[in-house]
DNA sequence: TATGAAACATGTCCTGA
DNA sequence: TCAGGACATGTTTCATA
């Protein structure tokens, strides 16, 4: 992964709609080698996938809720059931196992508080939770899917 | 926005690399009307953008940290400066103003705890914060950019 | 819905370090 | 041997009727 690959990644994580020709021009390559690099980045999994990002408000899910969960069940079977229940709830868009006093953190998107209550009930119906506390976001000030590229290790040799 | 639009959105937010021809076939349209619908969804902002999602581990930012921030400054100028400082820190990928006892919530991605300390220092150097508490994620169990489509209001008439 | 021009993707082959 | 470049072919995009 050299400087040109990084440039390609920077472009594509900002605008996945760029054509190969566009990218080639911007990174100073002709179409073929650029296309080969992109394909290589996809095949080796550096580029995980390409997606369209939709507008939360237009889809009527403008409200974000963070849910802190504590549990007294700390066995793998319970977690597997929990993970699978959460996976089936499309309103849950992020789900982390945490260090510290909170065990799990969920990010949920819904139209309003009433709808959040519906998700909450689905959640506690599916799985036994010890303590659940919800915080509402008033404003989304920044949201990006673009990762920082400053920490990438150079792998020019292992290509 | 009718059922076919929803189907198009569902496909594109899962796989933004699908060609128009692919989508047309899957939603049961011929190429031209399908293409017009996609363009309309882009022009009206329902599709905000297309991006490539990269692999956190491959880019050496496998560690996620949530940062809860409390402040004693509640004026718009301070928030504007805070927002702009955060915008300049690429490690901060999400940033919300919260209701409740925490004022702001950040999600940060870094390679390790040492790197997080660097980001933390940049943050407090840029802006005056009252109370900062960090929680580390041990495991990302679910992360999706796909929004739930179940709450979309039908706008067939207003097309 | 159909047609068609232009742009694009993507394979093969060739060149030079 | 490896990365870039030229070219050829099938596909896709997108305007028009």
Automatic annotation (TrEMBL), chains A, B:
InterPro entries: ArsR-like_HTH, AsnC-type_HTH_dom, Dimeric_a/b-barrel, Tscrpt_reg_AsnC-like, Tscrpt_reg_AsnC/Lrp_C, Tscrpt_reg_HTH_AsnC-type_CS, WH-like_DNA-bd_sf, WH_DNA-bd_sf. Residues 1-64 form the HTH asnC-type domain. Keywords: DNA-binding, Transcription, Transcription regulation. Pfam families: AsnC_trans_reg, HTH_24. PROSITE patterns: HTH_ASNC_1 (PS00519), HTH_ASNC_2 (PS50956). The keyword Metal-binding does not apply. GO terms for cellular component: cytosol. GO terms for molecular function: sequence-specific DNA binding. SMART domains: HTH_ASNC. GO terms for biological process: regulation of DNA-templated transcription; response to amino acid. This is AsnC family transcriptional regulator.
């Amino acid at each position: 992964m050299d400087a040109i690959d990084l440039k390609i990644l920077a472009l594509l994580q900002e605008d996945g709609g760029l054509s190969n020709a566009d990218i080639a021009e911007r990174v100073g390559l002709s179409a073929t080698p650029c296309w080969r690099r992109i394909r290589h980045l996809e095949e080796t999994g550096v580029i995980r996938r390409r997606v369209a990002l939709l507008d939360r408000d237009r889809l009527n899910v403008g409200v974000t809720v963070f849910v802190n969960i504590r549990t007294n069940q700390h066995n793998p079977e319970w977690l597997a059931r929990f993970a699978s229940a959460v996976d089936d709830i499309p309103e849950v868009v992020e789900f982390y196992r945490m260090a510290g006093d909170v065990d799990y953190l969920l990010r949920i998107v819904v139209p309003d508080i009433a709808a959040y209550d519906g998700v909450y009930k689905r959640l506690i119906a599916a799985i036994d939770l010890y303590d659940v506390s919800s915080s509402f976001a008033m404003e989304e000030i920044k949201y990006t899917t673009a990762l920082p590229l400053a920490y990438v290790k150079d792998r020019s040799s292992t290509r």
